[in-house]
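**Protein of interest**
===
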Amino acid sequence: MAIKDVRIKLNSSGIVRLLQSPEVSRELEARGTRIATAAGNKHDVNATVNRDRAVVFVTTKDTAARKAEAEQRRLSKAIDAGR
């Protein structure tokens, strides 16, 4: 028997607190570090908390790393290391 008329009300402030939590930040930073390691040693991991969530950026350090991304897609191919 199917349940009808189910409504779910999300607690928005609770979700924001969860997405900004230190635990989520640490997990994202660990994933970013794994991605940067898989892509090569010429990548930086920058973690921050935005208005509503923690975010991590993996960026290239120098021209050689940017060239490796452009020609060989090293950083793009390393994304699975973050899973």
The beta strands are 43-49, 54-60. The first helix runs from residue 12 to 19.
